[in-house]
Design the sequence.
């Protein structure tokens, strides 16, 4: 299966790069005020809607820890066992599970929030609807999704592939992805588009899209 092959390749690549990845990105939020602002807004929306647990594709765990520091009951899920081991070592007080975004064991409608912070960039575009369907399934009514991704070069290009340091990756036109979210009952609340900075190697816009399950 295409999905299985892509998932396995991505998992193995991140297992191999886990230590280096953690060294590069564990402190990445420190110099990212717009990212912190969107995470803060996400936390406030989740709290205002009644709170509840928040799950996220966690990598080495630093964003899970950041959300926990904002008062959320956050736990991390990642396909890479090596990433999960690093996260558990760094933050033993938090929960981290090995799992995949397209098929979690989380019961229906039990989460107040889902954070997908560049977690879907390695998902082949034909498989993205299954992942969004899983996000919709696990969110409670009124729950929020914050999904972050790189934008294509224009709205006439719904998706584009690009070379990533770890594994083949994909980017989406913001309007196209927002439409996929609507098709899964996740309506856009807000979006933040960040232009690439002078030191960014890739000249892509970064999109943070906040949506609500109706």
Sequence:
């Amino acid at each position: 299966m295409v999905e299985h092959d892509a998932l396995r390749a991505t998992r193995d690549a991140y297992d191999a790069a886990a230590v280096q990845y953690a060294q590069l990105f564990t402190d990445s939020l420190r110099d990212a005020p717009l990212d912190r602002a969107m995470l803060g807004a996400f936390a406030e929306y989740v709290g205002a809607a009644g709170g509840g647990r928040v799950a996220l594709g966690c990598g080495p765990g630093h964003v899970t820890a950041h959300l926990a520091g904002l008062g959320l009951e956050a736990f991390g899920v990642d396909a890479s066992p090596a990433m999960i081991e690093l996260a558990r070592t760094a933050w033993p007080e938090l929960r981290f599970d090995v799992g995949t975004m397209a098929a979690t064991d989380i019961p229906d409608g039990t989460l107040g929030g889902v954070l997908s912070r560049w977690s879907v960039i390695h998902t082949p575009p034909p498989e993205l609807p299954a992942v969004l369907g899983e996000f919709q399934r696990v969110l409670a009514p009124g729950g929020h999704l914050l999904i972050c991704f790189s934008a294509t070069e224009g709205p006439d290009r719904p998706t584009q592939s690009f070379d990533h340091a770890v594994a083949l990756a994909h980017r989406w036109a913001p309007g196209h992805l927002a439409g996929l979210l609507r098709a899964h009952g996740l309506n856009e609340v807000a979006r933040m588009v960040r232009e690439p900075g002078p030191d960014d190697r890739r000249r892509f816009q970064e999109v943070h899209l906040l949506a609500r399950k109706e």
Summary: Residues 2-25 form the longest helix (24 residues). The first strand starts at residue 53 and ends at 57.
